[in-house]
Amino acid sequence: MKKKISNGILYFILICLSLIFLFPFFWALVTALKSPAEIFAYPPSFFPQELHFANFAEAWTAQPFTKYLINSLIVTFLAVVGMTFSSALTAYGFARFEFPGKNLLFMILLSTMMIPWEVLVIPLYMQYNFFGWLDTLKPLIIPSFFGGAFYIFLMKQFLRTIPKDFEESAIIDGANYWQIFCKIFLPLLKPQMVLSAVMYMIIVWNDYLGPLVYISNSEKFTLPIGLSLYKGAHTTNFSAIMAITVIMTVPTVVAFFIGQKHILGSNISSGIKG
């Protein structure tokens, strides 16, 4: 009986927390469907008197959001693929090989997480200007192919738990280290790679400062920059902002639910036979 009561209390708390976290999404959707008069009405209403689905079409066509969407998809896909694979490869090197200065290099790598982006923005801008990358999508994509400290750390810690028997058996069978990485460790790393991909996808998809600093050509704008165009000096189109915000939220939510089963449903022990 006590267990049922404790479970009931736990579920009640989880439901309340879920409602709190879901409320901003609900309010964004409701606001996107309201008329301008209802948006500024006081007291605010939780449900619009009339659903204005045309707000979505008007908001999308008011700016070239199709172009912005394509740019965002290109940047997000390439950046996520580059970050995930390069981080896995680097983590494999740190976790499974011994070489002089390994611990020092790994410490330096982790220390880069303490450097705020604001400190690096001017040197990076000068570097990308020297390379001729400004006003292109390259500054948003190419750096991801050199890995990320947090994701390397995440995968390295996992790779350290895998027994040496995997490599020794593969080497006896004639496999080289590249084959071992691709055919043995990549499948085992799938949960960590999916987790890293989802986390980095959310960061890149919602990145505002990067495109703002490196891109001035409107043809290269991404969705967050396009969304900011609705905020003027004197007026702000809140229904359009909320409509685009709801649309932008959908890919991240879909990516989370797709990746969730891979993150939670995999177990390394399934690959080890007793």
UniProtKB/TrEMBL annotation:
Annotated localization: Cell membrane
Keyword Metal-binding: no
Major localization listed first in the record, in broad terms: membrane
InterPro entries: MetI-like, MetI-like_sf
Residue ranges crossing the lipid bilayer per the database entry: 9-30, 68-92, 104-125, 137-154, 193-216, 236-258
Organism superkingdom: Bacteria
Keywords: Cell membrane, Membrane, Transmembrane, Transmembrane helix, Transport
Membrane topology term: Multi-pass membrane protein
Domain ABC transmembrane type-1: 69-259
Alphabetical list of SUPFAM superfamilies matching this protein: MetI-like
Keyword match Iron-sulfur: no
Similarity comment text for this entry: Belongs to the binding-protein-dependent transport system permease family.
PANTHER family per UniProt: ABC TRANSPORTER PERMEASE PROTEIN MG189-RELATED-RELATED (PTHR43744), SN-GLYCEROL-3-PHOSPHATE TRANSPORT SYSTEM PERMEASE PROTEIN UGPE (PTHR43744:SF8)
The protein's name in its UniProt record: Carbohydrate ABC transporter permease
Taxonomic source organism: Blautia parvula
